Amino acid sequence: MVDLTFSREQNEFRDEVRTWLAENAPTRTRPHDYAEIREYDLSWQRTQYAGGWAGISWPVEFGGKGLSVIEQMIWYEEYGRAGLPGMDATFVGLNHAGPTLMSRASDEQKSKHLPPILRGEVIWCQGFSEPGSGSDLASLSTRAIIDGDDLVVNGQKIWTSFAHLADWQELLVRTDRTGGKHHGISWVICDIHSPGIEVRAIKTMDGEAEFAEVFYDDVRIPLANVVGELNQGWGVAMSTLAFERGTAFTASQVRLASLVEELVEIARTRTGPDGKRAAIADDEVARRLGMARAEVAALRAMTYVGISRSEKTGTPGSEGSIVKLYYTELHKQVAQLAMDLLGSDGLRFVSRWMNNGWTGEYLASFSLSIGGGTSEIQRNIIGERVLGLPR
Amino acid sequence: MDLLPSDEELSIAQTVAELLHRELPRELLRERQNEQTSISAEAWSICAESGLLALGLAEGSGGVGFGLVEEALAFREIGRELAPGPFLSSVIGARLAAEAGDTELVRAIVSGDRQVGLILPRAGATFDGSVVTGEVELVDATGSDLLLLLRPDVSALFDRASFASALPWQSIDPGVRLEVATAVGVEPVLAVVDSAELWARAVVLSSAILTGISEACRDASTTHAKTREQFGRPIGVNQAIKHRCADMAMYSEAASAQLLYAAAAGDAESADFGYQASIARVVASRAAISNAEANIQVHGGMGYTYEHDAHLYVKRARVWANLIGSRTFHLSAVIDEIRVAA
């Protein structure tokens, strides 16, 4: 039944989260150096684990709190509201690899890999995209040949966030080339420090080097590290992507909402286009800010619908693609609005990790509608899986 | 917290959809376009007997006792089915009468005996709470005994007879009757002050109509994209069409989610009900107009004909985007929160 109110327990949970975050959140600014980022993000995850806040919607048997996605969302809402740094380096472990292992891995794989993720001991990265396989992910050609008890991997991955900080990688390899392209892919747990792996950072247009290329030269991975059946990795990978479109976006959305409010504040204090009054007095500025506010509100409503659906059916469903498309396009518009509002002040580069890092925010925003499935791919998914249009 | 309608809530909407589909089939819009009223007295009675005009009214006031959520889901079907008739103004009119304590009038409206049309004041027209003066438009008031003038600060019901000199004006929409009248110090029969809640409910219900229109267009385009073949394949295989449909789905999803959020905010008596309602209208207007316009393009030449339904959605979307406050008005409500705080 449609109802906006949270239960008494959920409200108490929210209060606890808020209090705990206020008392335990890191006070030091997130560092810029990647080696330090690793330590910073892991140490913050360890603090959360020690406080009993790691894996809120993870089952108790894997070390989680065993609560529902609504509590998980409340956590992310409060996390975003507190203006805390994104959990970037720990994201893949907590939101991709972890949930995939939970649903598809063997008991042995689960008990070995899940607890260290929650305890803040390891960083996971993804190994899906390849230079020749971006939107057409299933065409991937990094090869793995069975040799004794091992897979021997040769090939290249790209757009791997934090590969240079990671310990483990969720790796998609081609183990059979005889069937259709969705058949013959395997989902493998890869130790990123294995001999034969080389990681090269990619500098992106915002000056950062979060992404990397990963090269594999006769890399041996035990067959025991295959998750699910050999050659059935495509289905395993797709379950990961559905998780990505679940609650994990909530913190980004709350952060976007606060960016809009920061822009409102800037528009109130800065002189507007007429050179006399505050920018907010300008109708065009006010209209765009008002629209951004309305869209952010609608985005929250869409997220609530998605979470209600997850709660009932256990999956956010393909409708998650609608939220992803809406969020990324909106975030880009907000970044564009910020640049228009700043005028020539936007010419001074400030990283998005710093205060008033609008220029960095703008440059980084281009990645949003590309990563995690481009907006065009999202529209295909919406067209084909939500609306049922022919391929 | 739950923003997914339950089976029970959806079944109410389903019942309404079936009723409207049966009693007010789409062809009727064209067949009746030269009749004085857009809906026959018989069809109005049948809809009233089903309880459609009393869904959100408390049982103590002679209503069914559902919340704004159920009422909004029902009005989404009114939009989807392009149902003609002064449903929104009658439902809100009955509520106004209930607030004023006129139980006899409530009964007369919800039973279908008395219809309530809508007054749309034109620029320069004034209403100080006691008299209305200036040029006004009357919307779907040709079969009405009463007229509703709705504003957040003060709202009122007028006797239709006080606007006897009203002249019919051809409307953009064959399913909506329009008249133009000049009022000189016309007094209401009933007025309530501080009608912000009444206003916000009407904003939500109009958003529901617009959301229903947007969904109908999304579905019509999707169906056409699946069945219409060119170059030997359904046109929906082309991304130019597929992505247009995906954008329609996105606009509808935003409108529908925010509609439920605003309606639930109303039922929860949240302090930000009016604000959430205005946001619902902003996104629902965009969804309805954008989807209805895109729907014509997806249907190609067929969509440009009078025979096809596509134009009816564009016209109804344009009507509702201008009643109970325009899109600019509601966007201003969002902006003013920004400006007022400054």
Question: What is the topology?
Answer:
The complex is a heterodimer of chains A (391) and B (342).
Chain A: H1 8-24, H2 34-50, H3 69-81, H4 91-104, H5 107-118, E1 124-127, E2 143-147, E3 150-161, E4 168-174, E5 185-191, E6 197-202, E7 211-222, E8 226-227, H6 233-244, H7 250-269, H8 283-313, H9 320-342, H10 358-365, H11 375-386
Chain B: H1 7-23, H2 27-31, H3 41-49, H4 68-80, H5 87-99, H6 103-110, E1 116-121, E2 126-127, E3 132-139, E4 146-149, E5 154-159, E6 167-169, E7 178-186, E8 190-193, H7 196-227, E9 229-230, E10 233-234, H8 239-267, H9 273-303, H10 310-320, H11 327-341
Parallel strand pairs in B: 1-4
Antiparallel strand pairs in B: 1-3, 2-3, 3-7, 4-5, 5-8, 6-7, 9-10
Helix pairs in contact in B: 1-4, 4-7, 4-8, 5-6, 5-7, 7-8, 7-9, 7-10, 8-9, 9-10, 9-11
How would you summarize what this structure contains?
The complex is a heterodimer of chains A (391) and B (342). With 391 residues, chain A is α+β, with helices and mostly antiparallel strands.
C-alpha Rg of chain B (nearest Å): 20 Å
**Range of strand content of chain A:** 5-15%
- How do the SSEs of chain B run, as a string of H and E? HHHHHHEEEEEEEEHEEHHHH
Class inferred from helices and paired strands of chain A: alpha+beta
Largest interface (CB within 8 Å) is between:
A-B, 53 and 52 residues
Question: Structurally, how many domains make up the residues of chain A?
Answer: 3
CATH architecture of the largest domain in chain B: Orthogonal Bundle
Largest sheet of chain A: 4 strands, mixed
Tell me, what's the shape of chain B? Answer: globular
Question: CATH homologous superfamily of the largest domain in chain A, by name?
Answer: Butyryl-CoA Dehydrogenase, subunit A, domain 3
Structural class of chain B: alpha+beta
Give the assembly state of these chains.
Answer: heterodimer
Residue-averaged pLDDT of chain A = 92
CATH-defined architecture of the largest domain in chain A = Up-down Bundle
Q: Round the Cα radius of gyration of chain A to an integer and report it.
A: 22 Å
Under CATH, the topology of the largest domain in chain A can be stated as Butyryl-CoA Dehydrogenase, subunit A, domain 3
